[in-house]
Amino acid sequence: MKIILTNDDGYDAPGLHALECCIQDAAQIVIVAPAQPQSGIGHKVTTRAPIRVNQMGPNHYSVEGTPADCTRIALKQISPEAHWLISGINPGANLGSDVYNSGTVAAAREAAILGYRSIAVSQYIAKDHQINWDITGYHAAAVLKMLMERDIAPSSFWNVNLPHLPDNHSEIPVQFCGLDTNPHQYDFKINKTEYRYEGSIHERPRNPGTDVAVCFDEGKISITQIAVGTPINFSPNRNNTVER
């Protein structure tokens, strides 16, 4: 099995190394990751400028572009025969509305658009805590193994968020759930002509049973299947013209 690994935090990010350690014994790994941090850049793609790709070693590439650029280059040019693309592990949760501005999620979404199976993995960071990457990698490895053995609908991908984890290898429950549709609670601090974002993900509103509550409140690993979009089926036997 061949798996592409990427992220939005950059080629040298510890989360990418942790992800590589998760599955290096189970697959042939190809890393195609941004040269620089691209967190929060969403699904931006480069179409009007060249994208420099630097080969850092066998099957290791640093791309001077966005996470979605990395996915496109990986699956269109470097390893089109890949079986999966996995993006992460992001230091910070990507839940609910976060999936629309997350570069981590965008990389997995782009793979789904191209017809490949993909997974985005993120690690929630509780207040005043740090990530233990060994523990995160241990739990991520089990979830990835489980998901790669399951079927997934075409044009869909898995979005995984690990809760704040204890500093041991105790079992963490997993729950499949939907995306929370609540917006963040935020405001802007104004200083003359400058507006500075003020908000906290920890106190964000959430609905019970959805990914934010499952990860934040229940302390479970949340797994959400996200579809790229709802297909529109046109029948050749009816008038598909839209009146305006």
List the helices and strands and how they pair.
Layout: E1 2-6, H1 14-23, E2 28-34, E3 53-57, E4 60-63, H2 67-78, E5 84-91, H3 103-113, E6 117-123, H4 133-148, E7 156-162, E8 174-176, E9 186-191, E10 194-199, H5 211-216, E11 221-227
Parallel strand pairs: 1-2, 1-5, 2-4, 5-6, 6-7, 8-11
Antiparallel strand pairs: 3-4, 7-11, 9-10
Helix pairs in contact: 1-4, 2-3
Q: Care to describe what's here?
A:
This protein has a single domain (2-227), classed as 3-Layer(aba) Sandwich (Stationary-phase Survival Protein Sure Homolog, Chain: A), CATH 3.40.1210.10. Strands 3-4-2-1-5-6-7-11-8 form a nine-stranded mixed beta sheet, with helices on both faces. A two-stranded antiparallel ribbon has the order 9-10. The chain has 244 residues and is of the alpha/beta class. It contains five helices and eleven strands. The model is unreliable at 232-244 (pLDDT under 50). 39% of the residues are buried. The protein has helices at 14-23, 67-78, 103-113, 133-148, 211-216, and strands at 2-6, 28-34, 53-57, 60-63, 84-91, 117-123, 156-162, 174-176, 186-191, 194-199, 221-227. 23% of the residues lie in helices and 27% in strands.
What keyword list fits this structure?
244 residues, alpha/beta, two-stranded antiparallel sheet, 9-stranded mixed beta sheet
What is the straight-line distance between the termini?
A: 50 Å
Number of helices: 5
> What is the helix/strand order?
EHEEEHEHEHEEEEHE
Number of domains: 1
CATH topology: Stationary-phase Survival Protein Sure Homolog, Chain: A
